[in-house]
Amino acid sequence: MAMIETPPYTITSTILDLSERIGEAVGRAEEAAVRANLRLRRVNRIRTIRGSLAIEGNRLTEEQVSTILEGKPVVAPLREIQEVRNAINAYEQYLRWNPASESDLLRAHAILMAGLLDAPGRYRHGGVAVTGPEGVQHIGAPADRVPQLMSNLLSWLNVTEEHPLIASSVFHYEFEFIHPFEDGNGRMGRLWQTLVLTRWRTLFSDVPVESLIHAHQGDYYDAIRDSSAQEESTPFIAFMLEVILEAVRDFGSSDHVADHVTDQVARLLAQLRGGPKSANQLMAALGLSHRPTFRQNYIHPALSAGLVEMILPESPTARNQKYRLTARGRAAAR
Fold first, then answer.
1. What pairs with residue 136 in β-bridges?
2. CA triplet 239, 245, 249: central angle to 5 degrees?
């Protein structure tokens, strides 16, 4: 039997401290999960899917993801709609998969990338590079080494005695380093870490960790680069544990979406139930004349909580800017 190589990483005091704090937060969040209703779980699933795909450049909003989940038509690029449909399908099935199973891993990739690649569910046969604004950031492992590298990584995941918080983070980084597929590696790595975490605590089927990764997207890529430079996944482990801690704490402190809603934000959400509105329209409807008050007490808290989004997020100060409810916001406004 071939020796299983252990991926390089170092368990630091920071990693141990974060793991302990996550354990405490998970306990509190599990109490909230018992009380969480199906509507909140659906909202968090939408945030998970939208967050993971947004990292890869998918521009669909939470509202559009929700519409697709409901089986209704959406006006958007066909590829982006297909990506959402595939992700919905994958997250509906992922609890059936064994994290250490290569066949399940390939099956998951086939679902996530159906209609997007010529041969989804198969390892790549050519080279692959990750590019960014500054050019090539990472070159994946040689294609002829991918099967053996993935076999070793999955075998390690199967036998490791590391805590699932650490093991899932190590796997996530090593998976991205190998980059075994022609496309879809980022969303697969995040899905598989969620699978490992959910096998540890079912709570993670409801915690939108991917949404928090999207919120810290720059730091996510920095952690990958730092780990590659150090030739061990330690920086990435620490980053992921910080994100997981934030996600669990957020979930544990909001067993109902409405818990985050102040009276001012609730009034704002009520005005948006009829459809998108501009800042001027909202201020008039709310009886406000002082724009700083509107920004500080109404629109900024709603945007930060993911209850409201701009229809033109790439141009925040556009004259024709309007605001609309996200799926999370619609749940809170009911």
1. 131
2. 150
**161 burial type by CB count under 10 A (0-12 exposed, 13-18 middle, 19+ buried):** exposed
Over the stretch 40-92, which tens digit does the pLDDT of each residue have?
A: 678 889 999 999 999 999 999 888 998 999 898 999 999 999 999 999 999 99
With beta carbons less than 8 A apart as the criterion, state whether 45 and 91 touch: yes
Q: For the whole model, what pTM was predicted?
A: 0.76
Phi, psi of 273 (to 5 degrees): -65, -25
> The tokens 């066909």 sit on which residue?
78
Pairing between β-strand 323-325 and β-strand 129-132 as defined by DSSP bridges: unpaired
**C-alpha span between 319 and 324 (Å, rounded):** 16
Please, are residues 314 and 54 in contact by the beta-carbon 8 Å criterion?
no
User: Is 47:62 a contact under the CB 8 Å cutoff?
Assistant: yes
Give the HSE-up count for residue 121: Cα atoms under 13 Å, Cβ half-sphere. Answer: 11
Domain ranges (residues) in the chain? 13-252, 257-333
The position carrying tokens 């980084």 is 173
Q: Count Cβ neighbours within 10 Å for each residue of 146-160 and write b for 16 or more, e otherwise.
A: beebbebbbbbbeeb
The CATH label, of 1.10.8.60, 2.30.110.10, 3.60.10.10, 1.10.3290.10, for the domain at 13-252 is 1.10.3290.10
Rounded to an integer, what distance in angstroms lies between the CA atom of residue 196 and that of residue 204?
9
The domain made up of 257-333 is a member of CATH 3.30.450.40: no
Residue of 85, 61, 92, 50 lying closest to 71 (CA atoms)? 85
- Strand pairing class (129-132; 135-139): antiparallel
Task: Give residue-wise pLDDT tens across range 3-40.
Answer: 899 999 999 999 999 999 999 999 888 877 766 666 66
